[in-house]
Amino acid sequence: MSLKFIFGPASTERRGALVDQLAQQMQADPNGQFFYIVPNHIKFSSEVDILTALKQRRHSEDKVFAASRIQVFSFSRLAWYFMKNTPYYQIPRIGTAGLNMVVYQIMADLADQLTIYRGELTQPGFVAQLVKQLLALKVGCVTAADLQQIADELDSDTDLAAKTHDLALIYTAFEQTMQGRYIENTDLLNALSDYLLQQDLSHTYFYIDGFSQLSAQENRLLLTLIQKATQVTLGLMLDRPYRQQLPEKQALFFHPGQLYHQLYQTARSLHVPILADLQVTEQRVTSDLQRLEAYWQHSTSGSRQLRPEALQNAKSIQIVQADTRQTEIRQVATKIRQMVALQGYRYQDFLVLTRHLDAYETILEPTFREFGIPAFDDLQHHMTDHPLVELINALFAVKQHYYRYQDMMRLLKTELLLPQVNGQPMANQAYRQAVDLTENMVLKYGFSGKQWLRKDDWQFYRFDDQDFGTQSTKDDDSSAQVNLIRHFVRDTLPPFFKKLDQAKNGQAAAQVLYNFLVEHGVVTQLQVWRDQALDQGNLAQAAEPEQTWQIFCTMLDEYVTILGSVSFQATDLLALFQVGFEGASYSQIPSTLDQVLISETGMVQTEMRKVVFMIGSTDQVMPDRIVNNQLLSDVDQEQLTPHLAEGAYLMDDALTQMASEPFLNYTAFLTAREQLIFTYPLADDGSSLKLSPYVERIMNHFQLVPQVAQTRPDITANKIAPFVGSKRSTLSHLIQVSRDAMAQKTQLPPIWLYVYRLLRQDGGYSALTERLLASLNYRNVPQKLRPEIVEALYGKTINTSISKLEEFYQNQYAYFLKYGLKLRERDIFELSPASAGEFYHMALDQLFKRVQAEGQQLAELSTTDVDRLIDSILLKMSTLPQFQILASSNRMAYLARQLTATIKQVAHALQHQGQQTKMTPLRTEVLFGHVGSTDGLAPLQFKLPHGRQVKVRGKIDRIDQMVLGNTRYLGIVDYKSGVRDFDFRDAYYGLALQMLTYLDAMMRNATDLTADTQLQTKPAGALYLHLQNPKLKLTEVLTKGFDDALLTKNKYQGFLLNDEPLLENLDHELAERTGSSKVYPLTKTNSGYSLKQSRLVTESELALLLTHDEELIQAAALAIFAGELKLNPVKWPNNQTALQYSPFKSIMQFDAMLPENNYRQLTALDRATVLAMLKAEQQQKEDK
Question: Where is the ATP-dependent helicase/deoxyribonuclease subunit B N-terminal domain (predicted)?
C-alpha cells in the first residue's frame, strides 16, 4: 500500500503524467490490475483519451487498440465491477420516485410525532426537498444516530432543535426502512468500502483524476483503497503541496489543497507509505494562457496589483460584445465555422461553456443547426415534457376535474391514445384533424363534464351572420369526426376510472393503470415513435420513448413494492409520478463524433479542447449568485458543524461556494489549450447586462479591446468575415446587405457580388438564393384580383349587408379576407357583445310583437304587466341553442340576471317614452332583401355595368310611425349595446351607412310597410337607442326626480327631420315648454326648435345624404367587382384606426413605417361642412 500525489496547476499536462506512470507500472507489473477513476459524466471521453495515450506510448500502429488490464471507471461503476455478483448488489435499487414514496409514507406514519414538519406533507415539493436533504446527510456520512445525538444536545426551544428532532425521527425510520430492502446510489460507496476491506487488492493500482474535492463517502472509499491497494495515485490541480497546513479559505486552490492535506495527514496516521510527489511542469497550453494563469493566481491571492502586459498572440484571449444573446451565439457559430474551414480545426476541438445553459437552451441548437455545426449538449435532459408523462398527468387531471376542457385537450394531444379505425390506430393526420374539430366544438359550445359521456351525438350548429342567429343545417362530416373522438373518450376513460375507483390498494391501482396503457396501444405508439426516429437517424430521440417507458415501469414497481398494500389515493400516486419524472433524465449518447461540446462551467471537463468559448460572461453569473435551497439553512449548518463526528460534514454553505467561484472559473479558463474567447450580451429580455468583473480584470490587465459583434453587415465596409459562416447563414447576410443597397440606391459591393455568384453556382442553394433575393422587390401591397377570381368569389351579384360595405370602406383588404376568403376567428363559448346584442334584440322584438298581438300599446301597460311579459319571453328564449350558455355556470347565471335587469329597464323606459309621444311602434325586426324570407321587404338593388348588380339587405330593429292629418311619418330606431350617435363625417366617408341605408329601404318599401296609399309618407328620422341599465347620480335624482333622470339616460340619439308638425308632436311635454326633450335629441327655444346641436336635417338635406349613400354602395360594389384589394385602413382624427381591433393584423402585416403602407387619414368634418360638400358635388353633376 502506498499513496502518490501528482499535481500541477491547470496549465500543466497532469493527465499525461498520470498516463506515463500508468504505462510504466503496467509494464513493471504484468499481473497488475489498473483502475483509472474519473467523474461519471466524463468517463467515456476520458476512456478514449487514456487508451489513445497508451497506444501512443506503446508506439502501436494498429487501428484497433485494447488494454484488458486497465479499466476507466467512475466510483459508482467501480462498485458495480467489484460487487456485481455479491448478494448485496442484488438488493433492489431504488430511484428518486421510490425514495419519495418511502419518505412520504414515513411522514404519514410519524405525523403525530413531528413538530415543525407536521403540516408539510401536503405542501408541493416538500417531500422531494426532504429526500435531497436526507441524501446530503448520507453523502456527508452523517447518520441518523448522529443527528439524534445532536438534537439531544441542542436547546429544545429553538427552531433548529425542532428541525433536527424531526429530521432525526424521519432519518431513523428512513434507515430502518431501507436496511436490507433497497439500495440507493449513496449506499454503494459505503458498501464498496466495507467490501474492499475484506478483499485482496495486491497487484491492484488506482489512479484518481479530475476531482478537486470528495464527498465523505468518496473520501472513506479512497482511504480504504490507500490501505488495501498496491498504490493509489491521485492527480490534483494544485500549485504546491499542503502537507503541514491547510491553505487559506480564500485561496484559489483551497479545495484541492484541503484534499491533499487531509489525505496526506490521514495516510501518515495510518502509516501508509507516501511516495515522492510529482510536480508536473510540462505545459499543455500556449504561453499567453500561461500568462493568464499566472495573473489569475496572483490577482486572487490578494497580492499587489501587477503591471499590465500584452499578449504575444492577440487571438489567444478575446472578448466579444454582442447586443443580444442571439447575436452572441451567431458570432460564436461564425467563428467556429471559419476556424474549421480555414485554420484546420475540427469541431471536436471546440468547447462552449456558460454558467447556466438555460438562458441559451432555445438559441444554441437552432443556431448551430442553421450554421451546419454538429454539437453535443452533455447536460442531462429531464423527462418532464415527454408525451407519456403528459398523458399520465392528463389522465388523472381528467378524472379529478371531470372532463375539463384543458385536461381533455392535454390528453388527446399527446397522440398516445388513438382510436381504432378498421382495426388499426387512426392515421396521425386524420386524428389531428378530428381533434382540432373537437376542440373547436368544445370551445364553441363549452362542452365539459358529463357532456363528453352523453348518449346523444354532438352536432355542429352554424349561425349565419346575415340571419342574425338563425340556426342552419348541421355539418354532418365535421360532426362525424368529432363524435369519433367523443365516442372513443366515452368508451375508453369511464371504464378505466371505474376500475381505478374500485382498486382497494396501490398494487391493484398500479395494475389497472399499467393494463390500461398497454391495452390501448400506448406502448405500441411509443415503439412507432422510436422506429420513426431511427429511420431518420436520430439516435438520441429514438432512445427517449423507451427510456421514459422504462422509468415509468420502474416507478410503478417501486410504488407497488413500497405502497402496494396501502389504501390507494390517486392524488398521492400522481404526485409521486410527478416527482419521479422531475428527477429522471435521459441517458445521453456519448459525444463520439466530430462535434462541438456544449456544457456548463460547474462541470468537470476533459482538457483536450483547443478553443473554449465562454458565452454569457456577464456579472450575473461570473461570479454566480449562490442560494441555499436546502431544508437546513447556512445558519443551521454553521450551528450543527461543531457537533459532527470526525469524517462527517455538511454541504458547503453559500459563502464557501462563493469563495470557490474563482477556482471554478479558473478551471474553465484553462480548459482551452490554444484560445479562450469570452462573449457576452449587452441585454436580455429588456434588461441590460454588464461584462463580468472577472473578465473585466483580465481585459484591463492584458489591455484587450473588446470586439463588437455586428448584427448586420455594413454596405460600405469591405470586411465581411464576421458574416461568412454556413451557406445558409451567409445567405441571410447577403439578403441584408442587398436590402441596404436597394435602400441607398447603390451597387452591391464586389465582395458581396462574389458571395452571390458562389451561392448562385451552388446546386443546393441556387433556387433559394434567387427566391430570397426576389423578396427584396416585394412590397406589402395586395394585388388586384383577376376577373376569374372575382367571378368565383362573388359571382354576378353581390348580396351584402350594409355593415359589410362599411367594413369595405374601413379597409378594402380586410373586407376581402373576411367576406371574400371567409376567414374568421375560432368561435369561443362566451357571451360576446354580439351575443348579448342578439339577446336584447330578440327580447324586445318578442315584447313588441306580443303587445301588438293583444291589440295594445306598450305605453298602455302597467309595469307589472311589462315584467310578466318579459319573464315569459326570456323563459322561452333560454331554451334556444344560442342562449344555452346563460345556464352553463354560476357566472353565466349572474350575467343572465344582468341581461334580464337591463331588458326590463329598457322596456320600462320604452313604456315611459311611449307615454310622452305620438310616435308608436309599427313593426320590429323588419327584414329587407333577405333571400328566402316570406315576410321581408325588397332589397336596395342597383344595376351595374356588365350585367352585374348589388343587392343590399338588412334588418331594421324598429320602425315607428306617427300620423298627422294626411301625412304619415316613419322613423327607424336602431338598438345599440353602447353609446352611438349619427356622425355626418363617417357617413360622408362610407363608414356610417347603416342608418341612411335603412331609411332609404324603409321609404322605398313604405307602401308595403303600411298597406296604405292614401297618406303622404315622410321620413321622421333615424335614431339610436342605447340598451342599458344606467347608473344614476344622486344629484340627478334629487334635481330631476328618479323617473325623469332615468328617462333622460335612455334618450334617443341620431337625427330628425326638420318638420315643424312632426317636431311639435314628438314630445308632449316639450310642446308646452322650452328646453330639451327627455326622449328625443331635440331642443326648443323661444324662437323655435334649435339647430345648434345639429340634430335636424331638412328634406333636401336628407335627400342629399340618401343619394350619397346610394352612390357609395354602388362605388363599393364596382370596386369589389374590379378586384380592388387596397390595404388602406382608415385613421380617424382621434388616431383610432380600423386595425385597432382587427383579427387579421398578422395576415395584413401593415407597417406604417413602410413607404407603401399608409393610413387613409380622415379629415375632421362637421355637419355643415358635409352638407356643403354634398351640395357642391350635386351641383357639379348637374353642371355636367
Answer: 5-293
Counting Cα atoms < 13 Å in the Cβ hemisphere of 27 gives: 9
DSSP string, 23-92: HHHHHH-TT-EEEEE--GGGHHHHHHHHHHHHHHHTT---S----TTEEEE-HHHHHHHHHTTSTGGGSP
**What ranges make up the beta strands (E) of 1040-1108?**
1053-1057, 1075-1076, 1083-1085, 1088-1089, 1096-1097
Please check the confidence at residue 254 and state whether its pLDDT lies above 90: yes
Q: Which residues pair with 93 in a beta bridge?
A: 183
| Residue 709 CB burial class (10 angstroms; 0-12, 13-18, ≥19) | buried
On the question of a common fold for 3-89+211-283 and 290-380+592-708, the answer reads yes
Torsion of CA 865, 868, 874, 877, to 10 degrees: -90
pLDDT, tens digit, 9 for 90 and up, residues 868-894: 999 999 999 988 878 877 887 788 888
Spatial distance between the Cα atoms of 930 and 939, rounded to a whole number of angstroms: 7
| pTM score over 0.85 | no
For residues 578 and 2, give the distance between their C-alpha atoms in angstroms, rounded to a whole number: 48
1086 confidence band (pLDDT: 50, 70, 90):
confident
Q: What is the mean pLDDT of the chain?
A: 90
Quote the pLDDT of residue 844: 93
CB 500 within 8 A of CB 509: yes
CATH topology for 3-89+211-283 is Rossmann fold (3.40.50)
Confidence bin at 468 (pLDDT 50/70/90): very low
Return the HEC string of 1089-1119.
Answer: ECCCCCCEECHHHHHHHHHHHHHHHHHHHHH
Which ranges constitute the DSSP H helices of 886-993? 890-914, 984-989
Q: Rounded to whole angstroms, how far apart are CA atoms 614 and 622?
A: 10
Strands (E), 323-441: 350-354, 375-377, 420-421, 424-425
- Which residues make beta-bridge pairs with 924? 958
User: Nearest-CA neighbor of 395 among 499, 487, 479?
Assistant: 499
- Is the pLDDT at 780 greater than 70? The verdict is yes
SS3 content of the chain, % helix, strand, coil (to 5): 50, 15, 35
What proportion of the chain, given as a percentage, has pLDDT over 70? 97
**377 bridge partner residues:** 598
Q: For residue 1047, what pLDDT band results from cuts at 50, 70 and 90?
A: confident
| pLDDT score at 471 | 37
Cell matching residue 848: 313588441
Span 535-547, pLDDT tens digits: 988 888 888 999 9
Spatial distance between the Cα atoms of 963 and 1012, rounded to a whole number of angstroms = 12
Best CATH choice for the domain 290-380+592-708 from the list 3.20.20.480, 3.40.50.300, 3.90.226.10, 3.30.750.24: 3.40.50.300
Mean pLDDT of 623-645: 86
First to last CA, the chain: 119
Q: What is the pLDDT of residue 65?
A: 64
Distance CA 254, CA 250 (A): 7
pLDDT reading at 525 higher than 90: yes
Q: Where are the domains of the chain?
A: 3-89+211-283, 92-182, 290-380+592-708, 387-582, 721-777
Q: From 917, 1001, 930, select the one nearest 960 (Cα to Cα).
A: 917
pLDDT in tens, 202-250: 999 999 999 999 988 999 999 999 999 999 999 999 999 999 999 988 8
- Amino acid identity at 332: V
Cis peptide before 623 (omega within 30 of 0): yes
Is residue 811 within 8 A of residue 963, CB to CB? The reply is no
The three cell numbers locating residue 786: 383577376
- The partner residues of 1075 in beta bridges, in order of sequence, read 1084
Q: Please list the residues that pair with 1097 across neighbouring strands.
A: 1057
Residues 594, 110 contacting (CB under 8 angstroms): no
